[in-house]
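Task 17 of the worksheet. Students: predict the tertiary structure of the chain below and write it out as structure tokens. Keep your answer in the requested format; marks are given for formatting as well as content.
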Amino acid sequence: MEYEAFVEHVRADGQLFADTADGDIEAPVPTCPGWHVRDLVEHVAQVYEHKIECTRLGKAPDPWPPEWPGADDPVTWFRDAHGRLLAMFDENDAASPSATWWPSDQTVGFWARRMAQETAVHRVDAELSRGVSTPVDAALATDGVDEILHIMLAGDWSDDADDEMTGQRVAVKTGGRAWRVVLDREATTVSDGDGSVDATVTGQPSDMLLWLWGRQPDDSVEMSGDRDAHRLMRTRLVMATQ
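Model answer:
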């Protein structure tokens, strides 16, 4: 997806998020156990503030977080932070420098993608607090599947080595794309395409994205093959997305 498309998704989903949250901010959020809408709104507002500061300073802000003067009215604070985040995106482009936690991509473009995904998933959280939800845009959701697999799940897991993981291979398929996840004791490898696998999970893009993020149950996608492989991938997904 292009930078401008990510920014437009931040704009649209952020507005929906605020409109949904603007009501009973003490309602529980079923997909974020222990959280109420107030906690959800404050979290996303603070995430936005952090990205604004990472770009303004060119480094991660420290100390963090500060006390927020708008925390007593979290929806108003969110709307203000959302507007300033969009202004930051509008004043920059995908190649503009910014401090990020992903070493190989220190650009505003990284944050445009990450904030589009952050906003979409938490927009669904807010809607579910009202007992309803609308799907994530299919193209955005497909990109989000790629992000969670390549950015969140893949990599070095030596600090949380798991003896049960001995090279199990899981294919993830959605939106006309496929990824192959290999679970080893101290690492997870993700590659594009499926190839030979032990298990497969398929589904519509929005369902797949929300399932990977733990927002939807197993019956929202189609799972086949080795159930232990699915279970082990879920184990690492939970840790990767905390």
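Marker's comment: The chain has a mean pLDDT of 96. The first strand starts at residue 155 and ends at 156.
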